[in-house]
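Hey everyone, long-time lurker, first post.

I ran two proteins through the pipeline my lab uses and got sequence/structure pairs for each. Pasting them in order. The first:
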Amino acid sequence: MSVNLMVVTDLDGTLLDHYSYDFKPAMSVVSSLKRSGIPLVFNSSKTHAEMRYLQDQMGLLDPMICENGSAIYLPKDRFRTAQSAWEDHGDFWRISLAKPREHWLRILAEYPDQGSILSFSTMGIQGVMNTTGLDWAGSERASQREYTEPLMPPANNEIKQDLITYLNGKGALVQQGGRFITVGDSVDKGRAMETLACFWRQEYGLPVRTLALGDGLNDVAMLEKANRSVWIRSPVNPIPDLVKQKDWHITQECGPKAWAAATQMWLEQHSHLVNSNKVKEHYG
């Protein structure tokens, strides 16, 4: 049976090196995906601005899932006709799945213990630079959030749990990433990936077979819903017990080198399906 192949990936610590954000060790495989017509979907807590910058660096124009499943961006050259709920956003159609960032900033501002909150909005661009290692331009892109607010998790676990309990009581979903906890709506990477696959199937008339790769707890929902799942080993965090219990491939190496090896292996296993990914031409 013909299918469309799709690679869906987290970024920090997965396709990007945890420390340097370098992706060069993965570029040969990224280029193979592009030549084969297989979309490389970024599915991350990162912003639209950050993802577009990375796409430009890699020579890509593929769908994106931003801010932990809060919005899907579909390139217009692959989806010529918008559905009624899709918003015009430059080269993309945007499908918003979550409440705006301002909603969660108001809730954070009402928390009694303001000293325990260190978020992107309170630390400013310089603070984002200090905590992420990004340069000024990268920190500006990271701060252009539309749906979520990242926080440095309090070092004291009791204080952290008090904050999470408060936020959950206000309807927020608090997701743990590699560096930050992220406050946002009750959405996740997995549901957004399924929605994207549905749009792709409607557009191209073929079922979608997904490879998903991630390294953080906020990737679990995505990995659980993929056809093939890869856990990228972290250089700083132990493998969660939850992950050890899954039938997922766990890499021995970290970051983009591990990502490249796992994705290349999956490509070789699906080489007989690659031709079906040469998506149909659109005529306007």
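...and the second, right after it:
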Amino acid sequence: MEQSNPTRLQELAQFLRTRRARLSPEQAGLPNEGRRRTPGLRRGEVAQLAGVSVDWYTWLEQARDIQVSAQVLNSIASALRLDTDERKHLFMLALQQLPAEPIAADTAVSMTLQTFLDLQGTSPAYVYDQRLNIVAWNRAASLIYGDYEGMSMRERNSVWRTFLSPYVRQLLQENWEHHARHRLAQFRACYAQAVGDPWWTDLIGELNRESPEFRAWWPRHDVLNGPEGKKINHHPAAGLLVFEQISFRATDASHLTVTINIPSDEETTAKVRKLLQRM
């Protein structure tokens, strides 16, 4: 914790006290020892559930400036039965950072989100998960970036596709290396949440075997998040297409990221519209 912000420490202490006060022993899986003078759990019970000392937890509720790790915060969040939003709030107060999100198994998108993609019209739009798998898309994206419907899940992984698909190299041409390095840096940032996971290990191994560029760049440990900005594509039927890219998290599924490539000029808009009408 930073030593210079007592207001934040007081806010953290008050938050912990209110969460403790609302939780009964029965809710926490503890025996009910009869009526209590004050509602909620005792500090010692929270400490026991979280696997920390009573003194240490007491100092936290007293707004003392002590060191706290993400692992301990997760234990406290579990002990106090915090929901997702409360857990994020706890991490922001204690560490000024959000907790690492677990890799979600469910990659299905809602009908509302799919409708949103479809309504983008001449703006190719897609959704990817924490593994950078493309899990939803609109028709413009499929016509420009490839027939996602006909691809396997591995082929729809944007890192695999970037490094091993000849079509992507043709589409990006002189901009391929910039795109590939950016996508790899995104992949490295996501990998931090799943180091040692067999799915990631298998994909990294395959890319190391099949792509000399991946093999050369992976050891650099470059890390990056965020959209690429301007995207220049060379489509085999439409020709030169120029887009401005924007990305954001889906509010109804925070493990999914929505990317929209907006035509940067009228010529690109007209070319995409013609593709949609013709194909």
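Reply from user beta_strand_b:
Welcome! Quick read of the second one: The chain has two domains: 6-95, 111-278. The first strand starts at residue 125 and ends at 128.
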